[in-house]
């Protein structure tokens, strides 16, 4: 069973460090994109210096700086590849059924990441787009 709460600090640190690194190398971004594929086990940060998320159609791959940083989350992929992947988020346990498709796993991961993105937004007063790969899950925070 993969316990997502164990990844909160790692993800928050990854995104925060990426924003600081981007700002030092370029300037303060207008928008930050957090792009994630939980079933493949990765996350990227993406940045716009000029455009808003809306100006790139709310699509991280269309940001001005795509895949600025990459976080490998191999345990997420490994769990997904088991016959019956199990995830714990807070006190909720989710058993994923592969026949229901990837969107059923994207939704709880999206909710988990949304809380982290909202926390980062408070300290980095900028537009943040959270988007899951090949999913209806996306939101500007």
Textual characterization of the structure:
The protein has 141 residues and is an alpha/beta fold. The chain contains three helices and eight strands. The chain has helices at residues 8-25, 74-80, 103-123; strands at 2-3, 31-37, 42-48, 65-72, 86-89, 92-95, 127-132, 138-140. Strands 4-3-2-7-8 form a five-stranded mixed beta sheet. A three-stranded mixed beta sheet has the order 1-5-6. β2 and β3 form a beta hairpin. α1 (8-25) crosses α3 (103-123). The chain starts with a strand and ends with a strand. The relative contact order is 0.21.
Helix-strand blueprint:
Elements: E1 2-3, H1 8-25, E2 31-37, E3 42-48, E4 65-72, H2 74-80, E5 86-89, E6 92-95, H3 103-123, E7 127-132, E8 138-140
Parallel strand pairs: 1-5, 2-7
Antiparallel strand pairs: 2-3, 3-4, 5-6, 7-8
Helix pairs in contact: 1-3
């Amino acid at each position: 069973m993969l316990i997502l709460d164990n990844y909160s600090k790692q993800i928050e640190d990854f995104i925060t460090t990426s924003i600081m690194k981007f700002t030092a190398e370029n300037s303060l971004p207008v928008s930050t994109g957090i792009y994630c594929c939980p079933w493949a086990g990765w996350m990227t940060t993406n940045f716009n210096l000029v455009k808003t998320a809306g100006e790139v159609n709310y699509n991280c791959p269309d940001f001005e700086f795509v895949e600025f940083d990459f976080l490998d989350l191999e345990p997420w992929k490994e769990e997904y590849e088991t016959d019956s992947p199990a995830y714990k988020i807070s006190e909720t346990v989710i058993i994923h059924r592969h026949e229901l498709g990837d969107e059923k796993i994207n939704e709880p991961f999206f909710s988990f990441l949304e809380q982290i993105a909202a926390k980062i937004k408070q300290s980095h007063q900028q537009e943040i787009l959270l988007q899951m790969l090949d999913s209806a899950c996306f939101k500007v925070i």
